Amino acid sequence: MSTTSVTPICLDPFETGGYPIHCRTLIVEVFQDESVQGESGRVRALATILDLRKQGWLPTGGELQTAGIIHHMLLDVLVDTVSGRIERFEPGQQVVAFEASERTAGDSCRDPIHLLRGMVGETLATGNTRRLREIFGGPLGCSHLLTLAQLVVSFLPEVIERERREATARQHCRERGERIAKRIIVIDGFEYGDGNQEAAIQLTDVHTLPFAAMTGPLDRFGAQHEVRAIIRVDAAAMTISAFDAAERMRTRTDLGTAGWQNRHEELSWLDGHPVMQGLAPALLHRYAADTSREPLLAALINVAPSLVQSLSARVTRMIELEARRGGRLSLEKGAGIGGFPDSCYIWRSGGCMTKMRQALEQASD
Fold first, then answer.
1. Domain map of the chain by residue range?
2. pLDDT digit string (tens) for 284-319?
3. Measured torsion, CA atoms of residues 255, 258, 260, 266, in degrees rounded to the nearest 10
4. 332 pLDDT tier (thresholds 50, 70, 90)
5. Rg from Cα positions in the chain
6. Separation of alpha carbons 294 and 124, rounded Å
7. Residue 134 near residue 150 (C-beta atoms within 8 A)
8. CA atoms within 13 A on the CB side of 4
C-alpha cells in the first residue's frame, strides 16, 4: 500500500507530505485608482503569476530549464467601477519558458501577448472568461497569462460590489492608490516515492477598511475568506485518489471564533475524477453561477494547471532512467517534453516545437 493511501489528510493544522517539487503562486491586488479620490471612479488590479520549480531540469527550446523561477508574468488592469468597462488590460512577461532563437525557429512565448489587450472595452460581466478563451485560449496565447487573466476577471466583480455595498454604510472614503483587497493562491506540488502526487492549495482573500478610519494597526482588517484543500493524484490513472477541502470566513468581530467549514461531502464527486480532462468544466458547471462560491471555484480550478508544472518530475526521471541504461532519451508516444498539443501558442499544431517533438518521438520508436 502506498504512503499516500494510508496517511490521512489534515487541513487544520495544514499538513502535507511527499517530496516538494513545485510551487505556483498567483496574486491579485486591487487598489483605488491613484487619479480618483473617493468611492466611485476606477480601480486598478495588479496581478502576478510565479512558478518555482524546486528540483530537476528539463530540455526546453534548446536550453536547460533548471530548478528556479520558470514563469513570472504580470497583468495591469484598470476598470471603471460604475460601468464595469475595462480601460486597461496590459500584460507583461518577466520570465518565459521559450525565448526566440534559432532553436525555436524564432518562436517565443512573447509572440501573442498583444492579443490580451483585446480585452480593453469589454466589461466585467458574465461570459468574460469565455471571451478570454476566445482571444487568448489554447494555441492562440500563453496558458499562464490566461490563467492569471481569468483569476483577475473572476475576483474583481465581487471586490467592486463589496466596496459599493460598504461605501453606503461607512463615513470614510478611500485614499488615492489605497489597497482595497488582495487575493493570493499558493499551490504546492509534492511527489511520493510511488510516483503519486499531492497538491496543497491555499487561497486567502483579504478585504481592507479605509486608511482614514484607522485608530490602531488592526483597524485596517475588514474581512478574510480562506480556502484550504489537499488533492492527491494517482500517477498511473491521473485521477483524484483522495481529497479534502474547507473554507473559513472571518471579520473583526469573529476573528478568534470563526471555524472551518468542511466541503468534502459536497465535493464527493471529485473522487476518482480525471484531473487533466473535464475537471474545469465540471467545476464551472457547479459553481460559476453562484458568486458566493467563487473563492472555492478559484482555488480548485487552478489545481490542474499547477499539476501540469509538477509533471516535469516525470520527465526528469525518464532522462535519469535512460542515463542509467546507457541509452538515449526516449519518450512515450504522446507524452513528450512540454505542453499538451494546442495547449498554448508554443505547442500549437504545426508549430516549430510541436514538429521537433514529433521528430524526437519518431526517432525513438
1. 11-326
2. 999 999 999 999 999 999 999 999 888 888 777 777
3. -130
4. very low
5. 22
6. 14
7. no
8. 22
Q: Is 340 exposed, middle or buried (0-12, 13-18, 19+ CB in 10 A)?
A: middle
φ/ψ (deg, to 5) at 17: -145, 175
Q: How far apart are CA 19 and CA 295, in angstroms?
A: 28
Kindly report the length of the chain: 365
Helix 143-167 vs helix 294-301: crossing angle, to nearest 10: 170
* pLDDT interval class at 228 (50, 70, 90): very high
pLDDT at 3: 47
3-class DSSP assignment, residue 325: helix
Alpha helix positions (H), 203-310: 279-287, 294-301, 303-310
Is there a contact between 212 and 39 (Cβ–Cβ < 8 Å)? no
Q: Alpha-carbon distance 257 to 22, whole Å?
A: 33
Q: Which of 66-75, 118-127, 317-326 has the lowest mean pLDDT?
A: 317-326
Question: In this structure, what C-alpha cell is assigned to residue 166?
Answer: 460598504
Cα 113 to chain centroid distance, Å, stands at 18
As given in the structure block, the three cell numbers for residue 337 are: 517534453
Instruction: Give the Cα separation of 115 and 132 in Å (integer).
Output: 10
